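Usage example:
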Amino acid sequence: MSESTDNYLKAIFAISQDQNEGALTTVIASRLSTKASSVTDMLKKLDEQGLVKHRPYYGTSLTSKGRKQALRVIRKHRLWEYFLVEKLGFAWNEVHDIAEQLEHIESDDLTTRLEAFLGFPKYDPHGDPIPDDAGNMPPDRKTIAASTMKKAEAYQLVAVTDSSNLFLQHMKNLNLSIGSKLLLKEKYPFDESLTVTSGHSTIHLTKEVAANLLLIKAAKK
Amino acid sequence: MSESTDNYLKAIFAISQDQNEGALTTVIASRLSTKASSVTDMLKKLDEQGLVKHRPYYGTSLTSKGRKQALRVIRKHRLWEYFLVEKLGFAWNEVHDIAEQLEHIESDDLTTRLEAFLGFPKYDPHGDPIPDDAGNMPPDRKTIAASTMKKAEAYQLVAVTDSSNLFLQHMKNLNLSIGSKLLLKEKYPFDESLTVTSGHSTIHLTKEVAANLLLIKAAKK
DNA sequence: GTAATTATTTAGACCAGCCTAATTTTTTAT
DNA sequence: ATAAAAAATTAGGCTGGTCTAAATAATTAC
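Running the assembly step on the lines above writes:
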Protein backbone atom coordinates (compact mmCIF):
# COMPACT_ATOMS: atom_id res chain seq x y z
CA MET A 1 0.00 0.00 0.00
CA SER A 2 1.72 3.15 -1.14
CA GLU A 3 1.00 6.63 0.15
CA SER A 4 -0.58 7.43 -3.15
CA THR A 5 -2.93 4.49 -2.79
CA ASP A 6 -3.92 5.71 0.66
CA ASN A 7 -4.64 9.16 -0.68
CA TYR A 8 -6.87 7.88 -3.45
CA LEU A 9 -8.82 5.69 -1.06
CA LYS A 10 -9.26 8.56 1.37
CA ALA A 11 -10.45 10.88 -1.38
CA ILE A 12 -12.95 8.36 -2.70
CA PHE A 13 -14.19 7.72 0.82
CA ALA A 14 -14.68 11.42 1.50
CA ILE A 15 -16.43 12.10 -1.79
CA SER A 16 -18.79 9.17 -1.34
CA GLN A 17 -19.57 10.53 2.11
CA ASP A 18 -21.04 13.89 1.23
CA GLN A 19 -22.25 13.48 -2.33
CA ASN A 20 -23.89 10.12 -2.03
CA GLU A 21 -22.94 7.47 -4.59
CA GLY A 22 -19.67 6.85 -6.38
CA ALA A 23 -16.90 9.36 -6.94
CA LEU A 24 -16.48 10.69 -10.46
CA THR A 25 -13.02 10.65 -11.98
CA THR A 26 -12.92 14.43 -12.41
CA VAL A 27 -13.99 14.99 -8.82
CA ILE A 28 -11.22 12.72 -7.54
CA ALA A 29 -8.77 14.54 -9.78
CA SER A 30 -9.71 17.94 -8.45
CA ARG A 31 -9.63 16.74 -4.85
CA LEU A 32 -6.14 15.31 -5.26
CA SER A 33 -4.93 18.21 -7.42
CA THR A 34 -4.02 15.83 -10.18
CA LYS A 35 -5.19 15.20 -13.73
CA ALA A 36 -8.11 13.04 -14.80
CA SER A 37 -5.87 10.87 -16.93
CA SER A 38 -3.67 10.10 -13.93
CA VAL A 39 -6.76 9.16 -11.98
CA THR A 40 -7.90 6.81 -14.72
CA ASP A 41 -4.54 5.05 -14.62
CA MET A 42 -4.59 4.74 -10.88
CA LEU A 43 -8.19 3.58 -10.65
CA LYS A 44 -7.35 0.77 -13.03
CA LYS A 45 -4.63 -0.39 -10.66
CA LEU A 46 -6.78 -0.02 -7.57
CA ASP A 47 -9.53 -1.96 -9.27
CA GLU A 48 -7.12 -4.76 -10.10
CA GLN A 49 -6.06 -4.84 -6.47
CA GLY A 50 -9.68 -5.18 -5.43
CA LEU A 51 -9.74 -1.91 -3.55
CA VAL A 52 -12.31 -0.05 -5.65
CA LYS A 53 -15.08 -0.77 -8.14
CA HIS A 54 -14.69 1.56 -11.08
CA ARG A 55 -17.60 2.18 -13.45
CA PRO A 56 -17.01 4.94 -16.02
CA TYR A 57 -19.46 7.83 -16.06
CA TYR A 58 -21.21 6.33 -13.07
CA GLY A 59 -18.63 6.67 -10.35
CA THR A 60 -16.01 4.77 -8.39
CA SER A 61 -16.80 3.25 -5.02
CA LEU A 62 -14.72 1.44 -2.44
CA THR A 63 -14.88 -2.30 -1.98
CA SER A 64 -15.06 -3.45 1.61
CA LYS A 65 -11.33 -4.06 1.47
CA GLY A 66 -10.79 -0.54 0.19
CA ARG A 67 -13.10 0.98 2.76
CA LYS A 68 -11.29 -0.85 5.53
CA GLN A 69 -7.97 0.57 4.40
CA ALA A 70 -9.41 4.07 4.02
CA LEU A 71 -10.74 3.92 7.56
CA ARG A 72 -7.36 2.80 8.83
CA VAL A 73 -5.77 5.86 7.31
CA ILE A 74 -8.50 8.20 8.56
CA ARG A 75 -8.13 6.70 12.01
CA LYS A 76 -4.41 7.39 12.01
CA HIS A 77 -4.90 10.90 10.66
CA ARG A 78 -7.36 11.85 13.35
CA LEU A 79 -5.42 10.28 16.19
CA TRP A 80 -2.33 12.16 15.13
CA GLU A 81 -4.29 15.41 14.88
CA TYR A 82 -5.48 14.84 18.39
CA PHE A 83 -1.91 14.21 19.52
CA LEU A 84 -0.61 17.34 17.83
CA VAL A 85 -3.23 19.56 19.43
CA GLU A 86 -3.60 18.00 22.85
CA LYS A 87 -0.03 16.94 23.54
CA LEU A 88 2.12 19.25 21.47
CA GLY A 89 -0.03 22.33 21.76
CA PHE A 90 -0.55 23.04 18.09
CA ALA A 91 -3.49 25.21 17.11
CA TRP A 92 -6.13 23.08 15.47
CA ASN A 93 -5.81 24.87 12.16
CA GLU A 94 -2.10 24.05 11.92
CA VAL A 95 -2.22 20.30 12.18
CA HIS A 96 -3.72 19.10 8.95
CA ASP A 97 -0.58 19.04 6.80
CA ILE A 98 1.50 17.34 9.42
CA ALA A 99 -1.17 14.72 10.10
CA GLU A 100 -1.30 14.20 6.36
CA GLN A 101 2.24 12.90 6.60
CA LEU A 102 1.91 11.03 9.85
CA GLU A 103 -1.13 9.09 8.65
CA HIS A 104 1.10 7.07 6.34
CA ILE A 105 3.29 5.61 9.06
CA GLU A 106 2.86 1.85 9.01
CA SER A 107 2.57 0.09 12.33
CA ASP A 108 -0.61 -1.20 13.85
CA ASP A 109 1.16 -1.49 17.14
CA LEU A 110 1.99 2.22 16.99
CA THR A 111 -1.60 3.15 16.25
CA THR A 112 -3.06 1.19 19.13
CA ARG A 113 -0.44 2.45 21.56
CA LEU A 114 -0.98 6.01 20.43
CA GLU A 115 -4.71 5.64 20.88
CA ALA A 116 -4.23 4.37 24.43
CA PHE A 117 -1.70 7.10 25.23
CA LEU A 118 -4.25 9.70 24.14
CA GLY A 119 -6.95 8.14 26.32
CA PHE A 120 -9.08 6.63 23.55
CA PRO A 121 -10.45 9.88 22.12
CA LYS A 122 -13.64 9.52 20.10
CA TYR A 123 -13.46 12.78 18.15
CA ASP A 124 -10.53 14.69 16.69
CA PRO A 125 -9.87 18.40 17.26
CA HIS A 126 -12.18 19.35 14.40
CA GLY A 127 -14.95 17.27 15.93
CA ASP A 128 -14.68 14.49 13.38
CA PRO A 129 -15.23 10.96 14.67
CA ILE A 130 -12.26 8.62 15.07
CA PRO A 131 -12.88 5.06 13.82
CA ASP A 132 -11.89 2.28 16.18
CA ASP A 133 -9.50 -0.51 15.35
CA ALA A 134 -12.20 -2.45 13.52
CA GLY A 135 -13.27 0.57 11.47
CA ASN A 136 -16.39 1.41 13.47
CA MET A 137 -17.24 5.04 13.98
CA PRO A 138 -18.35 6.19 17.42
CA PRO A 139 -22.12 6.73 17.81
CA ASP A 140 -23.40 9.84 16.09
CA ARG A 141 -23.95 12.90 18.19
CA LYS A 142 -27.17 14.59 17.20
CA THR A 143 -25.74 17.94 16.26
CA ILE A 144 -27.53 20.99 14.96
CA ALA A 145 -26.16 23.86 12.89
CA ALA A 146 -25.65 27.10 14.78
CA SER A 147 -28.17 28.71 12.45
CA THR A 148 -30.95 26.80 14.22
CA MET A 149 -30.01 27.76 17.77
CA LYS A 150 -32.80 28.69 20.16
CA LYS A 151 -32.74 31.17 23.00
CA ALA A 152 -32.50 30.04 26.58
CA GLU A 153 -30.72 26.87 25.56
CA ALA A 154 -27.05 26.17 26.25
CA TYR A 155 -24.95 24.70 23.46
CA GLN A 156 -21.49 23.41 22.95
CA LEU A 157 -19.55 23.68 19.71
CA VAL A 158 -18.42 20.15 18.85
CA ALA A 159 -17.58 20.14 15.15
CA VAL A 160 -17.34 22.19 11.97
CA THR A 161 -18.49 21.23 8.50
CA ASP A 162 -15.82 23.27 6.73
CA SER A 163 -12.27 22.25 7.64
CA SER A 164 -10.52 24.55 5.23
CA ASN A 165 -7.72 26.60 6.64
CA LEU A 166 -9.56 29.75 5.63
CA PHE A 167 -12.52 28.89 7.81
CA LEU A 168 -10.40 27.58 10.66
CA GLN A 169 -8.40 30.77 10.66
CA HIS A 170 -11.61 32.80 10.70
CA MET A 171 -12.82 30.87 13.72
CA LYS A 172 -9.60 31.58 15.49
CA ASN A 173 -10.09 35.27 14.79
CA LEU A 174 -13.59 35.03 16.22
CA ASN A 175 -12.10 33.30 19.24
CA LEU A 176 -14.20 30.21 18.69
CA SER A 177 -12.94 26.69 19.16
CA ILE A 178 -14.21 23.17 19.56
CA GLY A 179 -15.64 22.94 23.05
CA SER A 180 -16.79 26.57 23.23
CA LYS A 181 -20.02 27.01 25.18
CA LEU A 182 -22.52 29.16 23.30
CA LEU A 183 -25.80 30.91 24.13
CA LEU A 184 -27.99 32.59 21.55
CA LYS A 185 -28.39 36.27 22.22
CA GLU A 186 -30.11 37.63 19.12
CA LYS A 187 -31.23 36.55 15.68
CA TYR A 188 -31.37 38.97 12.73
CA PRO A 189 -33.80 37.69 10.13
CA PHE A 190 -32.73 40.31 7.60
CA ASP A 191 -29.38 38.68 6.83
CA GLU A 192 -29.83 35.51 8.91
CA SER A 193 -26.92 36.44 11.11
CA LEU A 194 -26.92 36.08 14.87
CA THR A 195 -25.06 37.06 17.98
CA VAL A 196 -24.05 34.58 20.63
CA THR A 197 -22.21 34.79 23.89
CA SER A 198 -19.26 32.60 24.69
CA GLY A 199 -18.08 33.11 28.24
CA HIS A 200 -17.90 36.83 28.72
CA SER A 201 -17.58 37.80 25.10
CA THR A 202 -20.20 38.37 22.47
CA ILE A 203 -19.64 37.08 18.96
CA HIS A 204 -21.42 37.99 15.78
CA LEU A 205 -21.96 35.05 13.44
CA THR A 206 -22.83 35.64 9.82
CA LYS A 207 -25.14 33.23 8.06
CA GLU A 208 -22.11 31.68 6.32
CA VAL A 209 -20.32 31.05 9.57
CA ALA A 210 -23.34 29.82 11.49
CA ALA A 211 -24.06 27.19 8.87
CA ASN A 212 -20.66 25.61 9.45
CA LEU A 213 -20.78 25.30 13.21
CA LEU A 214 -22.21 22.10 14.66
CA LEU A 215 -23.53 22.20 18.20
CA ILE A 216 -24.98 19.88 20.77
CA LYS A 217 -27.21 20.89 23.64
CA ALA A 218 -25.15 21.28 26.75
CA ALA A 219 -25.88 21.19 30.44
CA LYS A 220 -26.71 24.75 31.47
CA LYS A 221 -24.09 26.43 33.50
CA MET B 1 14.67 16.47 -0.03
CA SER B 2 13.27 13.01 -0.65
CA GLU B 3 13.31 10.17 1.84
CA SER B 4 15.88 8.48 -0.27
CA THR B 5 18.12 11.53 -0.08
CA ASP B 6 17.79 11.53 3.69
CA ASN B 7 18.74 7.89 3.85
CA TYR B 8 21.86 8.37 1.76
CA LEU B 9 22.98 11.31 3.86
CA LYS B 10 22.39 9.39 7.06
CA ALA B 11 24.33 6.42 5.76
CA ILE B 12 27.28 8.54 4.67
CA PHE B 13 27.26 10.34 7.98
CA ALA B 14 27.28 7.08 9.93
CA ILE B 15 30.02 5.51 7.83
CA SER B 16 32.25 8.57 8.13
CA GLN B 17 31.70 8.43 11.88
CA ASP B 18 33.19 5.03 12.66
CA GLN B 19 35.59 4.41 9.80
CA ASN B 20 37.20 7.78 9.55
CA GLU B 21 37.33 9.42 6.11
CA GLY B 22 34.90 9.25 3.22
CA ALA B 23 32.37 6.51 2.58
CA LEU B 24 33.13 4.11 -0.26
CA THR B 25 30.40 3.44 -2.78
CA THR B 26 30.28 -0.26 -1.97
CA VAL B 27 30.01 0.42 1.73
CA ILE B 28 27.09 2.77 1.19
CA ALA B 29 25.46 0.19 -1.06
CA SER B 30 25.71 -2.53 1.53
CA ARG B 31 24.46 -0.29 4.30
CA LEU B 32 21.40 0.72 2.30
CA SER B 33 20.85 -2.77 0.89
CA THR B 34 21.10 -1.48 -2.61
CA LYS B 35 23.45 -1.92 -5.56
CA ALA B 36 26.67 -0.04 -6.18
CA SER B 37 25.41 1.18 -9.53
CA SER B 38 22.37 2.72 -7.88
CA VAL B 39 24.63 4.43 -5.41
CA THR B 40 26.76 5.87 -8.18
CA ASP B 41 23.65 7.33 -9.79
CA MET B 42 22.46 8.82 -6.57
CA LEU B 43 25.80 10.24 -5.53
CA LYS B 44 25.97 12.08 -8.80
CA LYS B 45 22.67 13.76 -8.02
CA LEU B 46 23.60 14.52 -4.43
CA ASP B 47 26.85 16.00 -5.61
CA GLU B 48 25.01 18.24 -8.07
CA GLN B 49 22.78 19.40 -5.24
CA GLY B 50 25.83 20.28 -3.20
CA LEU B 51 25.08 17.77 -0.46
CA VAL B 52 28.12 15.53 -0.85
CA LYS B 53 31.58 15.58 -2.31
CA HIS B 54 32.14 12.44 -4.30
CA ARG B 55 35.64 11.30 -5.19
CA PRO B 56 35.84 7.83 -6.79
CA TYR B 57 38.03 5.26 -5.04
CA TYR B 58 38.68 7.74 -2.30
CA GLY B 59 35.30 8.10 -0.68
CA THR B 60 32.27 10.35 -0.46
CA SER B 61 31.93 12.89 2.31
CA LEU B 62 29.20 15.29 3.30
CA THR B 63 29.37 18.98 2.56
CA SER B 64 28.37 21.20 5.44
CA LYS B 65 24.94 21.50 3.86
CA GLY B 66 24.70 17.72 3.65
CA ARG B 67 25.90 17.24 7.20
CA LYS B 68 23.36 19.73 8.46
CA GLN B 69 20.57 17.83 6.77
CA ALA B 70 21.87 14.48 8.04
CA LEU B 71 21.91 15.82 11.57
CA ARG B 72 18.35 17.07 11.20
CA VAL B 73 17.23 13.59 10.27
CA ILE B 74 19.22 11.95 13.04
CA ARG B 75 17.78 14.43 15.50
CA LYS B 76 14.25 13.54 14.43
CA HIS B 77 14.98 9.83 14.52
CA ARG B 78 16.31 9.93 18.06
CA LEU B 79 13.58 12.19 19.39
CA TRP B 80 10.94 9.87 17.97
CA GLU B 81 12.69 6.86 19.45
CA TYR B 82 12.62 8.56 22.79
CA PHE B 83 8.93 9.30 22.34
CA LEU B 84 8.12 5.73 21.39
CA VAL B 85 9.89 4.28 24.41
CA GLU B 86 9.12 6.86 27.08
CA LYS B 87 5.61 7.87 26.10
CA LEU B 88 4.18 4.91 24.25
CA GLY B 89 5.91 2.20 26.23
CA PHE B 90 7.64 0.39 23.39
CA ALA B 91 10.60 -1.79 24.24
CA TRP B 92 13.75 -0.13 23.03
CA ASN B 93 14.50 -2.89 20.57
CA GLU B 94 11.17 -2.42 18.82
CA VAL B 95 11.40 1.22 17.91
CA HIS B 96 13.99 1.44 15.19
CA ASP B 97 11.83 0.64 12.18
CA ILE B 98 9.05 2.96 13.24
CA ALA B 99 11.46 5.81 13.94
CA GLU B 100 12.92 5.13 10.51
CA GLN B 101 9.58 6.22 9.08
CA LEU B 102 8.87 9.05 11.49
CA GLU B 103 12.24 10.68 10.87
CA HIS B 104 11.09 11.72 7.41
CA ILE B 105 8.17 13.85 8.60
CA GLU B 106 8.81 17.41 7.50
CA SER B 107 8.03 20.16 9.97
CA ASP B 108 10.56 22.03 12.01
CA ASP B 109 7.78 23.23 14.23
CA LEU B 110 6.84 19.64 14.96
CA THR B 111 10.40 18.73 15.86
CA THR B 112 10.89 21.57 18.30
CA ARG B 113 7.52 21.00 19.94
CA LEU B 114 8.22 17.29 20.24
CA GLU B 115 11.57 18.01 21.83
CA ALA B 116 9.95 20.30 24.40
CA PHE B 117 7.16 17.81 25.07
CA LEU B 118 9.76 15.15 25.82
CA GLY B 119 11.62 17.47 28.19
CA PHE B 120 14.68 18.17 26.01
CA PRO B 121 16.26 14.73 26.25
CA LYS B 122 19.96 14.61 25.46
CA TYR B 123 20.30 10.90 24.71
CA ASP B 124 17.95 8.48 23.00
CA PRO B 125 16.93 5.10 24.44
CA HIS B 126 20.05 3.45 23.01
CA GLY B 127 22.21 6.05 24.67
CA ASP B 128 22.99 7.87 21.44
CA PRO B 129 23.26 11.65 21.65
CA ILE B 130 20.48 13.83 20.24
CA PRO B 131 21.69 16.85 18.23
CA ASP B 132 20.08 20.17 19.09
CA ASP B 133 18.28 22.39 16.64
CA ALA B 134 21.55 23.81 15.34
CA GLY B 135 23.10 20.37 14.85
CA ASN B 136 25.28 20.40 17.97
CA MET B 137 25.70 17.16 19.86
CA PRO B 138 25.49 17.23 23.66
CA PRO B 139 28.85 17.09 25.46
CA ASP B 140 30.50 13.69 25.34
CA ARG B 141 30.16 11.50 28.34
CA LYS B 142 33.44 9.75 29.06
CA THR B 143 32.22 6.20 28.80
CA ILE B 144 34.19 3.01 29.21
CA ALA B 145 33.46 -0.43 27.82
CA ALA B 146 32.16 -2.92 30.37
CA SER B 147 35.22 -5.05 29.67
CA THR B 148 37.34 -2.52 31.56
CA MET B 149 35.21 -2.37 34.70
CA LYS B 150 36.96 -2.33 38.05
CA LYS B 151 35.83 -3.82 41.34
CA ALA B 152 34.44 -1.60 44.09
CA GLU B 153 33.31 0.96 41.58
CA ALA B 154 29.65 1.63 40.72
CA TYR B 155 28.71 2.02 37.07
CA GLN B 156 25.69 2.86 35.05
CA LEU B 157 24.95 1.49 31.60
CA VAL B 158 24.37 4.49 29.34
CA ALA B 159 24.82 3.28 25.78
CA VAL B 160 25.57 0.34 23.52
CA THR B 161 27.86 0.21 20.54
CA ASP B 162 25.86 -2.43 18.71
CA SER B 163 22.28 -1.40 18.00
CA SER B 164 21.35 -4.46 15.98
CA ASN B 165 18.13 -6.11 16.92
CA LEU B 166 20.03 -9.30 17.67
CA PHE B 167 22.10 -7.61 20.33
CA LEU B 168 19.21 -5.60 21.73
CA GLN B 169 17.16 -8.75 22.06
CA HIS B 170 20.04 -10.46 23.82
CA MET B 171 20.27 -7.60 26.30
CA LYS B 172 16.60 -7.90 26.98
CA ASN B 173 17.11 -11.60 27.72
CA LEU B 174 19.91 -10.71 30.10
CA ASN B 175 17.59 -8.20 31.72
CA LEU B 176 19.91 -5.33 30.96
CA SER B 177 18.76 -1.93 29.82
CA ILE B 178 20.01 1.62 29.52
CA GLY B 179 20.20 3.02 33.02
CA SER B 180 21.00 -0.30 34.72
CA LYS B 181 23.35 0.09 37.68
CA LEU B 182 26.21 -2.39 37.52
CA LEU B 183 28.93 -3.60 39.93
CA LEU B 184 31.77 -5.88 38.89
CA LYS B 185 31.72 -9.13 40.77
CA GLU B 186 34.30 -11.30 39.06
CA LYS B 187 36.58 -11.29 36.03
CA TYR B 188 37.57 -14.49 34.24
CA PRO B 189 40.81 -13.96 32.35
CA PHE B 190 40.52 -17.31 30.56
CA ASP B 191 37.72 -16.18 28.24
CA GLU B 192 37.63 -12.52 29.23
CA SER B 193 34.08 -12.89 30.50
CA LEU B 194 32.85 -11.36 33.72
CA THR B 195 29.99 -11.43 36.17
CA VAL B 196 28.28 -8.29 37.39
CA THR B 197 25.43 -7.55 39.73
CA SER B 198 22.51 -5.40 38.76
CA GLY B 199 20.17 -4.82 41.66
CA HIS B 200 19.66 -8.23 43.20
CA SER B 201 20.50 -10.30 40.19
CA THR B 202 23.83 -11.52 38.92
CA ILE B 203 24.54 -11.44 35.21
CA HIS B 204 27.26 -13.20 33.28
CA LEU B 205 28.72 -11.13 30.46
CA THR B 206 30.75 -12.77 27.74
CA LYS B 207 33.64 -10.89 26.19
CA GLU B 208 31.48 -10.16 23.14
CA VAL B 209 28.71 -8.66 25.21
CA ALA B 210 30.96 -6.68 27.54
CA ALA B 211 32.68 -4.98 24.61
CA ASN B 212 29.37 -3.51 23.49
CA LEU B 213 28.22 -2.02 26.78
CA LEU B 214 29.24 1.55 27.53
CA LEU B 215 29.28 2.65 31.16
CA ILE B 216 29.89 5.73 33.19
CA LYS B 217 30.99 5.81 36.78
CA ALA B 218 27.97 6.30 38.99
CA ALA B 219 27.39 7.58 42.47
CA LYS B 220 27.61 4.57 44.78
CA LYS B 221 24.34 3.49 46.21
C1' DG C 1 -32.25 13.76 -33.24
C1' DT C 2 -28.35 16.28 -33.94
C1' DA C 3 -24.93 19.52 -31.90
C1' DA C 4 -22.38 21.05 -28.18
C1' DT C 5 -20.61 20.01 -23.82
C1' DT C 6 -18.68 17.22 -20.39
C1' DA C 7 -16.43 12.99 -18.79
C1' DT C 8 -13.27 9.60 -19.71
C1' DT C 9 -9.73 7.07 -21.80
C1' DT C 10 -5.61 6.18 -24.72
C1' DA C 11 -1.05 6.97 -26.42
C1' DG C 12 3.27 8.40 -25.57
C1' DA C 13 6.53 10.68 -22.60
C1' DC C 14 8.94 11.99 -18.25
C1' DC C 15 11.18 11.52 -13.55
C1' DA C 16 13.11 9.32 -9.41
C1' DG C 17 15.13 5.46 -8.00
C1' DC C 18 16.20 1.19 -8.64
C1' DC C 19 18.03 -3.06 -11.36
C1' DT C 20 21.47 -6.36 -14.34
C1' DA C 21 25.21 -6.96 -17.29
C1' DA C 22 29.19 -5.33 -19.19
C1' DT C 23 33.11 -2.35 -18.87
C1' DT C 24 36.66 0.58 -16.99
C1' DT C 25 39.65 2.15 -13.38
C1' DT C 26 42.38 1.52 -9.38
C1' DT C 27 44.66 -1.23 -6.02
C1' DT C 28 47.01 -5.26 -4.38
C1' DA C 29 49.66 -9.45 -4.71
C1' DT C 30 53.46 -11.68 -6.28
C1' DA D 1 55.69 -5.09 -13.79
C1' DT D 2 52.13 -7.64 -14.69
C1' DA D 3 48.05 -10.38 -13.35
C1' DA D 4 44.25 -10.79 -10.38
C1' DA D 5 41.00 -8.72 -7.43
C1' DA D 6 38.28 -4.99 -5.93
C1' DA D 7 35.84 -0.70 -6.74
C1' DA D 8 33.34 2.09 -9.62
C1' DT D 9 30.94 3.38 -13.70
C1' DT D 10 28.14 3.06 -17.97
C1' DA D 11 24.46 1.49 -20.83
C1' DG D 12 20.04 0.14 -21.07
C1' DG D 13 15.82 -1.20 -18.85
C1' DC D 14 11.98 -1.45 -15.30
C1' DT D 15 8.20 0.43 -12.12
C1' DG D 16 5.07 3.76 -9.99
C1' DG D 17 3.07 7.75 -10.56
C1' DT D 18 2.60 11.60 -12.98
C1' DC D 19 1.89 14.63 -17.32
C1' DT D 20 0.05 16.55 -22.19
C1' DA D 21 -2.37 16.04 -26.28
C1' DA D 22 -5.54 13.63 -28.84
C1' DA D 23 -9.42 10.60 -29.27
C1' DT D 24 -13.77 8.62 -27.81
C1' DA D 25 -18.01 8.09 -25.19
C1' DA D 26 -21.95 9.84 -22.72
C1' DT D 27 -24.95 13.52 -21.48
C1' DT D 28 -27.40 17.69 -22.13
C1' DA D 29 -29.43 21.43 -24.81
C1' DC D 30 -32.41 22.72 -28.17
